Amino acid sequence: MDKYTVLLKEVIGYDYNRIREVIRAGMLELGSKPGGRVFVKPNVIFAHRRYGTGGYTNRIFLRALLEELAERKEVEQIILGEHCAVTVPTRYAFKEAGYNELKKIPKVKFCYIEEAPKIFVDLKKGSVHKRLPIAKCMSDADYKIWAPKLKLHASAKITCALKLNLGIIDSSTRLYGHDYRLDEKIADLYEVGHPDLVVVDAIEIGEQAELVPKLKTLNCIMMGTKGVAIDSVGARIFGYQPEEVAHLRIARERGWEPTTDDKIEIKGDYTLEQLREKVGAVDRTFHNPSELDTPIRFYIGKYAKDGHYCDTGCPNMIKTSLSIFNAYDPGCLKRARPVAVVIGEYEGDVDGKGYPIIMLGSCAKVKGKVKGWRIRIPGCPLLVPIFMVPGAIIFGLKSPYNDPSALLPYPYYFVVSYIMKAINWFPTQWYKINPPVKSSSS
After folding, report:
1. Any idea of the CA torsion for 255, 257, 259, 263, to the nearest 10 degrees?
2. Which of these CATH numbers, 3.40.50.11440, 3.90.1150.10, 3.60.150.10, 1.20.210.10, describes 4-279?
3. How confident is the model at residue 432 (pLDDT cuts 50, 70, 90)?
């Protein structure tokens, strides 16, 4: 039986020299030989230099990886590509994460995926998607390296190598199926977002919620050549069995190796049990809004259209939004107004108690008596900023969108990003008519 190796190497803090040493030795042990055009995908879903400093692949970690690649004669070009959270220009996130200095590394070029020209790739195993627009800079790569940060996810349980692929598609494609089908969607994306090497920043891992996580020191770098193997180990580090992580289970059911844990061989400085012990009790704050220490009241029902519980749709949005409010102004949720929030088709009565009843998402409905006036904020799924701007006013909270540090730079990067999208729309349309369409790897 083939075994798929996952290396668990000790690195104390973000020690640049030690990180390079581990990456170099890990590539040798795994038989990884990057060459030609190398596409590197970090995790920069959100970054802010004051209150969003821990949710992305650490800058020192990424510099060590890029400079190790740059010194290899076989590597001709390194493309650092990412698409951060929807509505946030990746250019802005890179600036906030301190990534712009990485442009100075020889051979490195940036690819802001939401702006880049796309080609169209047919999927053989997709259920939510049958065809995907993929940045040409990624499609043209000879070798792909994923560099995620190991974190909990408030709805998908973990985010590591597989979920990193939400950042390889444009915003409209990203939002399609970002509901109760999200785990299937992530499994679809693995067909094209199939890295040759995964190097995980697990020196500090993220708990609570994924955009603005609470950090816990693990002092580990994970390396492997199969994203499914990496995520299977990552899930168990957090105390989940791989089959409990739906997108990981679906990927295995589709035949992506390793399909069972007994095909994974763990090597290195740690055992899985040692890392699980280091993590200890896991902080899952924000995973269930009803358990938060806040006067806000939540009434969550099924997705009205098909009767599914849509935890990865609008409920995920409210979890993310509340975590951002709290990161921006710690403790603020305890001071929020006791507003009622309805998500999905709630079976029961809702009393506004003198405050508005917020109907979140297009399908929100109360199948019972309603006492109070209703305000609907539509969307499927509802976007975080579309909720947070009025939500701050309704809940009586400070809005991160009014932060002086963002008022000038954010609009500038937003405009530049949209100009580049408009320019690159033309080659994308050309590729749509005259495709270099190619089937993904099976």
Report:
1. 150
2. 3.40.50.11440
3. confident
